[in-house]
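Risk mitigation, structural track. In case the binding assays with adenosine-5'-triphosphate fail to produce interpretable data, a predicted complex structure has been prepared as a fallback.
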Amino acid sequence: MAQVKIEHVGKKFGEVTAVDDFSVEISDGEFVSILGPSGCGKTTMLRMIAGFERATGGNIYIGDRLVSSAGGRIFVPPEKRGIGMVFQSYAVWPHMTVFENVAYPLKIQKKSKEEIRRRTEEVIELVHLTPYISRYPHQLSGGQQQRVALGRALVAEPALLLLDEPLSNLDAKLRESMRFEIKSLQEKTGVTVVYVTHDQAEAMAMSDRIVVMYSGVIQQIDRPIRIYEKPANKVVADFIGLVNFIGAAVENNVAHIHDLRCEISNEAGITGKALAAVRPEHIKISKTARPDSLTGRLTHKVYLGDSVDYRVQIGGDELRIINKATHFEEFTAGEEVYVNFKKLMVFKPD
Ligand SMILES: Nc1ncnc2c1ncn2[C@@H]1O[C@H](COP(=O)(O)OP(=O)(O)OP(=O)(O)O)[C@@H](O)[C@H]1O
Ligand SMILES: [Mg+2]
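Fallback model:
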């Protein structure tokens, strides 16, 4: 299989910097997602790994081979990089059957008829399309077509699989089940995967590590749990999951939030004006005051079945709080309530 090393890679389209100083090392057999909002440079980065776009800076290695070096003017074309790719607007050929679509890369490689048949049937089995092998794309659902595109990317046994939002055209349910299919397929084949998505749940569910990108720049590279629990900065905290930001003042290991003193670890060594960040599930709403609670007014409550979504006004801040539904009926909109922070993050302000 393949490890991938990306060193200081950049891409400029004229004046626009789509990707800036991107560096990451991906291990053999690892599943890494590039996650970020629309336009942050994900597709551009993936296309540079594939060789469909030329980097304007830095080096890319696939395995031990330098496939792209802007300085050294090395550029290995896509067909010589040993990759499989599913594009953002995945396209399966409408005039070819499932078998013909999946077999296509092997045909191009001029494999023997027998090998093409054997390998194609194997891969079609792997993506659960055997009953549809002779159908044309218009006779398949969106999810089945998606699996054809995946099969076609896998058939030539690439060392590296590059997937660009491969589930974006599917409905929510199918998207969820495909997450598991892709993950188990990767585990079965041991292929190294770079997966591009703007959907954090997708990235969380499948990845060994996530690269969070914003505006062309890497913000954090970490395991999913760390990205959620220890976001590197305000941008990551805001993009991953839900979060309340509240103005704070930090002095050594204490954050002052409204009239509350909160002990913090302050690993970043912040002093003075800061931004406290609390996830809605890390705030507890209560009818009784404690020494460490803030007083606010409940403005809204929405029953969601397993949980309740509350809004509480504290001075100029409106906090979103998500708690278990057990105490839903005890609270009335408009009344005074008390809130406690169970976990607090602190960032430098902009
Ligand atoms: N060929 C091009 N010429 C000029 N600018 C481009 C070109 N391709 C991409 N860009 C710009 O580069 C930036 C990054 O685009 P890219 O397609 O990589 O984003 P993305 O993260 O994949 O977004 P999305 O989630 O919407 O697919 C955008 O500002 C885009 O407009
Ligand atoms: Mg894209």
